[in-house]
Specification:
The complex is a heterodimer of chains A (about 375) and B (about 300). Chain A has 16 helices and 13 strands. By secondary structure, chain A is α/β, with parallel strands linked by helices. Chain A folds into two domains: about 200 residues, D-Maltodextrin-Binding Protein, domain 2; about 160 residues, 3-Layer(aba) Sandwich (D-Maltodextrin-Binding Protein, domain 2), CATH 3.40.190. In chain A, the strands form three sheets. In chain A, strands 1, 2, 3, 6, 9, 10, 11, 12 and 13 form a nine-stranded mixed sheet that branches. Chain A has a two-stranded antiparallel sheet with strand order 4-5. The longest helix of chain A has 20 residues. Chain A starts with a helix and ends with a helix. In chain A, about 50% of the residues are buried. Chain B folds into two domains: about 45 residues, no CATH class; about 230 residues, MetI-like fold (Orthogonal Bundle). Chain B has about 300 residues and is mainly α. Helices cover about 75% and strands about 0% of the residues of chain B. In chain B, α3 crosses α7, α7 crosses α9 and α9 packs antiparallel against α12. Classes of the chains: A alpha/beta (about 375), B mainly alpha (about 300). Chains A and B meet through α3, β8, α9 and α16 of A and α10 and α11 of B.
Chain lengths: ~375, ~300
């Protein structure tokens, strides 16, 4: 009997103790499964090590803007509750802007140890929405053109040259349209930057009603361009087609390209370049919802995740992404070989000059709809 | 006295007495309780979202009733709706032809090794998910994919003239590959349960096996074939992974465009309007299916 009482009190005491010290940090992330793996396999365990009693739980909501949309819906649905079940949200630009406008995110960046290390303009402005203070960039990924130097010795350097080149070499360039992933979407945005005469407005706003009417010539030339290119099924479809020698050139995500090469899934002779005037890239953001249950812990987590050491090891070394903080702050944590590999094909200056942001949210949707109406049919 | 009462009760149904309704209800209670979980699940997880999505298709951004979503769906994706119908019908035709051939051979074939081998092999795709089938087809049917490479190596195809099958043909082939085992399974089962004496009588009178299949066997299993095809139609209309993985650009299947509307525009209204067309198509199939099964029940 005494033993049983002792055992029961021990159990009660331990339950009390865990309820005091145990904290669960809920990280909800958009993106491919690699985002969940990154938190579960790397970031979470390292953070738990430094914070005994803390459990990091990662949930993925799916790739692309659809994943960010799901996070928005999840948070928006519990808007009227006192406490929300998301502590850290990892979202794309477009949804970050909307969530800031809807008052769903906390202004947390000031006072964060790593906030001074961020220099990119995307930390202040997400597709035309001022997000300064609400987000920390996790990484930056860039769309570029992959080409096979064995087939094309001197690739076209601009959209204009590319359009001419494709006419002379039909069937050698491939991309995935706008329904098969962001590499194709980004290529189309670049086309509009080059030929719409509205590159600044598209990226920075303001939105003008009826803007799409002025795009008819640019879209007509894109439709004409499409007659000479191969349509590939998806971002991976473009890389697959290059691998099989079906096409010699196509738009890809740079990080995906490097990862495939590192895994031995892609011809390592292929090279990357960015067309002028510019091709879009985007960050993903760490954000803290306005009523997060573990807001302080969330801030510590984000400071840790954006520290130079983690950005070097996790973001650059593991995923071949560009760091979310200024690359110069990460340089000392990388070997020369790793630094050079990151900028092997595209020099930092070229990246700065031709790495443009995505269109402002309204233009983003308007360009896609205009493409569907005028080009895809 | 007691005897008369019981005899009366036997001849005429007892008058409804107060409390009999509640007694009947309490008699039904266990049954209702047993049905309740399934009914609730269907109501909450299926009927409610269905009604909600149907309603959303007719609600504009300002919350009022509108046909704008339907008009937009037709204007932007009319070709995709037509494409979905044509691809599904072509797939069903190929599925029917292949399944009849396989099930017919399983029933009428005489080879000692080919029949068991085919019986063992034809079911494999049943265990492969659509997404895996899509991924396999994607590298198998590409221009420099495995199929064309094999054909070129065999000297059948000139490598320079090879073309990609990643369009409607790829969809039809993948859908057929995935659904043929299901239809064959039902069809071969139905054929096996036929009275073999009709087949043997025809064979004794000199009918070829092919004639036997088309004039004796197939007419008897037509209802089962029809049901299997209706169920396949519903499955094919709901597949998202295969069109997303095989088709680039438009036209493509409706499911891919519904996902596109939600992913890039957060636009559930037009996605639901597209869904409405899907419902209409499957509803037509369901109506045919119900009519068929009712007719069967009427004359078993």
């Amino acid at each position: 009997m005494n033993i049983r009482i002792a055992f029961a009190s021990l159990l009660a005491a331990s339950a009390l103790a865990t309820s005091v010290s145990a904290q669960t940090l809920n990280v909800v992330t958009a993106g491919d499964t690699n985002m969940v793996d990154y938190i579960n396999d790397y970031l979470g365990p390292k953070f738990e090590e430094a914070h005994p009693g803390v459990t990091v739980r990662a949930v993925g909501t799916g790739p692309g803007d659809g994943g960010s949309q799901a996070i928005f819906e999840k948070i928006n649905a519990q808007k009227d509750k006192g406490v929300w079940d998301v502590d850290v949200a990892v979202v794309h630009q477009r949804m970050a802007g909307q969530m800031v406008q809807d008052g769903l995110l906390a202004n947390y960046r000031d006072g964060l140890a790593t906030s001074k290390l961020v220099t990119r303009e995307t930390a202040e402005n997400a597709l035309g929405v001022n997000v300064s203070g609400y987000v920390m960039p996790m990484f930056h990924s860039q769309i570029a053109i992959a080409y096979n130097p064995d087939v094309i010795a001197t690739p076209p350097q601009s959209y204009e040259e590319l359009a001419k080149w494709v006419k002379e070499n039909p069937g050698k360039f491939g991309y995935n349209g706008i329904t098969g992933g962001m590499a194709g979407v980004g290529f189309v945005f670049g086309w509009m930057y080059a030929f719409s005469d509205m590159a600044d407005e598209i990226r920075n706003g303001p939105w003008v009603d009826g803007a799409a009417d002025k795009w008819t010539p640019a879209l007509a030339s894109l439709r004409d361009f499409n007659q000479s290119v191969v349509m590939t099924p998806g971002n991976a479809g473009t890389l697959d087609a290059m691998n099989r020698g079906e096409i010699a050139m196509g738009p890809v995500w740079m990080d995906m390209f490097y990862t495939w090469v590192a895994d031995g899934r892609l011809n390592p002779n292929l090279k990357l370049m960015i067309l002028s005037p510019g091709m879009p890239g985007q960050p993903m953001y760490y954000a803290v919802p306005a009523k997060a249950a573990q807001a302080d812990l969330a801030k510590e987590f984000i400071a840790f995740a954006t520290s130079p050491a983690v950005q070097a090891e996790g973001i650059v070394r593991r995923f071949n992404w560009f760091p979310g903080i200024d690359p110069q702050n990460v340089k000392s944590e990388l070997t020369d070989a790793e630094w050079n590999r990151l900028f092997a094909d595209v020099a930092p200056e070229t990246l700065a000059e031709r790495g443009w942001s995505m269109p402002q949210a309204k233009y983003f949707a308007a360009i896609l709809e205009a493409y569907e109406k005028n080009v895809a049919k | 006295m007691t005897a008369t009462t019981s005899a009366d009760a036997r001849q005429t149904p007892p008058d409804p007495v107060p409390g009999s309704a509640s007694r009947r209800l309490s008699g039904m209670l266990p049954g209702l309780l047993l049905v309740a979980p399934a009914l609730t699940a269907i109501g909450l997880l299926y009927a409610a979202p269905l009604v909600r999505s149907l309603v959303t298709a007719f609600v504009g951004a300002d919350g009022t009733f509108t046909f704008a979503n339907l008009e937009k769906a037709l204007e932007f994706y009319g070709a995709d709706i037509l494409f979905s119908i044509l691809v599904t019908l072509a797939s069903l035709a190929l599925i029917a032809a292949t399944s009849i051939a396989i099930a017919g051979y399983l029933t009428l074939g005489q080879s000692r090794w080919a029949v068991p081998l085919l019986r063992w092999m034809y079911r494999w795709p049943l265990f492969i998910p659509f997404i895996v089938a899509g991924q396999t087809a994607r590298s198998f049917l590409a221009r420099n994919g495995m199929l064309n490479t094999l054909l070129a190596d065999a000297g059948v195809l000139d490598a320079a003239a090879a073309q990609s099958l990643l369009d409607w043909r790829g969809l039809v082939l993948t859908f057929a590959w995935k659904q043929v085992p299901f239809v064959t399974l039902l069809l071969a089962g139905a054929m096996a349960s036929l009275d073999r004496s009709t087949i043997e009588a025809a064979r004794n009178l000199g009918a070829s096996r092919l004639r036997c299949l088309f004039e004796i066997v197939l007419p008897q299993v037509r209802p089962q074939l029809f049901v299997a095809l209706v169920l396949s139609l519903v499955t094919l209309l709901s597949v998202l992974s295969v069109p997303v993985m095989l088709i680039s650009g438009n036209p493509t299947m409706m499911t891919a465009m519904m996902a596109h509307r939600v992913t890039y525009y957060g636009d559930y209204a037009v996605a639901n309007a597209l869904g409405l067309f899907s419902y209409l198509l499957t509803a037509a199939a369901a109506w045919a299916y119900l009519r068929m099964s009712l007719k069967e029940k009427a004359n078993p």
